Amino acid sequence: MRPARFTDADVLVDDTLARVGRRVVLAAPLGLGKSVPLVNSFYRRAKADPGLDLMIVTALTLQKPEARGDLERRFLGPLNDRLFAGYPEVIWLRDQRRGEVPSNVHIHEFFFAPGSRMHVMAAQREYVSTNYSYVVRDLIAAGVNVIAQMVAREGDTYSLSCNPDLTLDLLDYFREQERAGEQVAFLGQVNPHLPYMYGESELPAEAFHSLLVGDQAAHPLFGTPNDPVSLADYGIALHASCLIRDGGTLQLGIGSMGDAVTYLLQMRHRDNDGYGALLESAGIPDRYTELLENAGGTGPFTLGVYASTEMLVDGYLALYNSGILARCVYPNAIVQELLNEGAMSEVLDIGTLGVLKERGLLSGCMTNSDFESMRELGVFPPDARYDRGVVTMPNGVSIALDDDDCVKKLVDFCSDELQGGVIAHAGFFLGPDAFYEAIRQLSRSERTRIAMTRISFVNELYGDERLKRAQRQSARFLNSGLMVSLLGHVVSDGLEDGRVISGVGGQYNFVAMAHALDDGRSILMIRSTRSKAGKTRSNVVWSYGNVTIPRHLRDIIISEYGIADLRGHSDEQCIRRLLNITDSRFQDELMAEAKRRGKLDRDYRIPDPYRSNLPATIEAWFGPLRDQGSFGNFPYGTDFTPEEQVLGRALKMLGAYSQARRFPPGWWKHLGAFVATPAAARPYLERMNLDRPGSLRERLESRLVVYALALSGSI
Questions:
Q1: Over the Cα atoms of the chain, what is R_g?
Q2: What digits encode the pLDDT tens for the residues 10-48?
Q3: pTM of the complete model
Q4: Residue 32 DSSP SS3
Q5: Which of 196, 313, 449, 645 is the residue whose CA sits 20 to 30 A from 697?
Q6: Which domains does the chain have, with CATH numbers?
Q7: What angle do CA 584, 585, 589 make, to 5 degrees?
Q8: Using an 8 Å Cβ cutoff, are 210 and 615 in contact?
């Protein structure tokens, strides 16, 4: 009887190898749902046995931060012990960093944790560039025969929980393979800490071939700490927040910009007067009047928004708790279209039932599939039966759907409101520990309204296209980029030397979908500059040797200084609009390059209102509000102590100058840090266990920490 249950991952893997043979193509979900104990066990077996051919295909492998020096070790050691205690080490990452992965093992990832593999050449060589929605196709072509996934359990059923994204489609393929007599294995790691999600994510026990249970399976979940939100992030979010339609659709990503957008949407909803004043102070209503009228909104959310997103982030729960994530969508295209048109309401009264009958959804010509759809929506009771135009209720009453008075009769049996609605469709979730706990605290009915589903549904329009178009009205797909060229190319995934920072993921999917939807818009959010070791560079460039989103898909680009609506405009108009949101320190150089290339009229001048795009401008918008306690670095909390927040900034600055082999401006002003220890530095030295240095090395490290604190303005 399936499934077999094991308490030892190595024994489970032995059993699986006996089933599938000595060539294993192992699919391990991205992010949280990866079964680290099982993947580790497969890797150990292959490392010990050169005759075992192992390919691991995965993405977004989560790992504890690794220290590269003694100061980092002192900073990260207590942090790792506190935040990631009990999470298993991913052993193949260690070998990959050292270049010690054996030749019979290939590890392919299609998305990296941003920046985590920049200097791991083995990982760079094995990287696979593909759209998120094409990964299943690529896995099938590679001969996938094993899936190893962490799952949740409730009673006798199981849930793919955080990662139904690719697994649901792969399981369809596995069933086909089994019918054809091929040997495959679906392995589950039952982790009691994983929130149970309902709906399509749920599976019966017999869907699995083997389950890992017990202590090895019950390790803590990996929580990703929130990143600090900068004033530039808030500036970007302020502009993005006024492009979200009430009654529309929202896709939002992880990270500080996503947190900033969430914060501004909450302000728009809860404190609309204050939000309006902030917009006015930034000059947004005057600069973008037409765009806001045609594609945006600045009022509170009376209808709410619906989330159609590959990744469910903690910001969505904040929006849900604020009453913003509140628009339900339903699994019937005609019903959804009627709701969009305002032709019916979600209340199942005589009026609504009359509209359904008038549109042919209640008739004697209904198929069994039509009947099931109406029953799922609550039009018929769960125990009602249907046969050739007649519905028989649980109490025996029969209603002929072609009768003129059938609507009056149905009112007594239908639900009060439409059933089966959801406020979000998502492919996977990942976030801080507080996010997982918040999901666990949701009631069953609340979790049922968050539909964790396959990425082929979320990231594409084809397949149920009419339904998806109806659900995704006024869609705004918000993603982040690294750089944008003046011609509208966007760089999001890697560098021009070929190194991959993260991956394409689903960004291309959503950009293309925004163009395909009648009223959809892609919004790519890009900080205007980046700084390292005291040197600032523009993220708006003339050109760059790597492109993630080509210019023929250019749409809306946002920096902290403004909005560039590029869709359907000429190259010259796009250049002008992008110059308007460029940091003013780089505008003249970029404008001159565009003129030299013949793409910009030689007499063109950037309008004066866009000539003050400087950090001081952003500070003027948000500084007073930050002084009052708003727009903080961590609007949704943090796992870092106050001392760790300060130390993190200071050590990062020191490390950047050290790596660049440059002295910081005014470096000599802080040399006093090498002579005496200010009292203000004491808490930070205690956190680094350098408050009582013993050896010469420790005394030097103590001085470096004080110098870094002084350099960053922390003391």
A1: 28
A2: 999 999 999 999 999 999 999 999 999 999 999 999 999
A3: 0.94
A4: helix
A5: 645
A6: 4-217 (3.40.1080.10), 231-327+455-610 (3.40.1080.20), 333-410 (no CATH), 642-711 (no CATH)
A7: 95
A8: no
